[in-house]
Design brief:
Order of helices and strands: EHHEEEEHEH
Shape: flat
Distance between the termini: 20 Å
Strand order of the largest sheet: 2-5-1-6
Helix content: 25-40%
Radius of gyration: 19 Å
CATH architecture: 2-Layer Sandwich
Number of domains: 1
CATH class: Alpha Beta
Length: 138
Amino acid sequence: MRFMLLLKASQDSEVGAPAGEALITEMDRYNDALVRAGVLLDGAGLHPSSRGARIAFSQGKRTVTTGPFTATNELIAGFWMIQVKTPEEALEWARRWPHSQGSADSQIELRQVFEPTDFPEPTQDVVEREPHGVLSRS
């Protein structure tokens, strides 16, 4: 099962303030542990929302709003994609994220990723209409 660990943004991450050396060292250790355990699929930090955009879709129209966005607690500063055997194992990895004492408050959101097996098998007529076989699970 795959899970995404979403690191919520903070006021510091939104102004582009670099993490302190101690936290970077702790994060390197954490990432190394994920790699050694064979569970890390991907991960990265994200630039502040001032360098991003949101695209809203409503009634056939697209509206683009460029950052920065003010609701910092709703923004993502980084992510890890992990593959583990149980939800409990994913939660344990999330709990181990290195939050240094005395640093700004932080929060990790843990979300399970849908797998193809979570959806019903497509019917043959749907598979035949798909030009590139994307829906086929064979």
